[in-house]
Amino acid sequence: MTSKTRRTIGSFAALAAATALAGCSFINPIQTQELVALSDGVQVWVDPGLRADNITVLTSAEGETGVVIGTLANDTDEAAEFTLSIADGGITTEVGAGEVVQFTEDNPVFIPQVPVAPGQFIEAELSVAGHGSETALVPVLDDTLSHFADHMP
Description:
Layout lengths: L2 H25 L14 E6 L2 E10 L6 E9 L5 E7 L2 E7 L4 E4 L5 E3 L9 E8 L3 E10 L12
Parallel strand pairs: 2-9
Antiparallel strand pairs: 1-2, 2-3, 3-6, 3-7, 4-5, 4-8, 8-9
């Protein structure tokens, strides 16, 4: 085989390999462009721009008082009324356009009796007036993770 033939075959092989490898991003979605909740809680989307972030229930045991931590976010141009319902607790509040409402010590959301033990999940419903509702399974945690110790009810 001549030197020119080897170069031609090598060029075609390199082109075939480059084409095959480039096809990976064509077939599979690029994961760095996917929105994910990198937290202990969950995200619940009702509509684009209307969501709850990092929703988690903290309690010491099944049947005890629980507190919800997380955020309601409104990335739209209009204020919206959010309702978050978990077991026999929850909150209804208006979230202004482009604003967030955080559940903190100053704005707590309590659940009088959490019906499941820490380590399990509980159903939550997020509804936004005029936009519908979505349900999600929310983790119930205790203070095993030290960063939750200051937030326990």
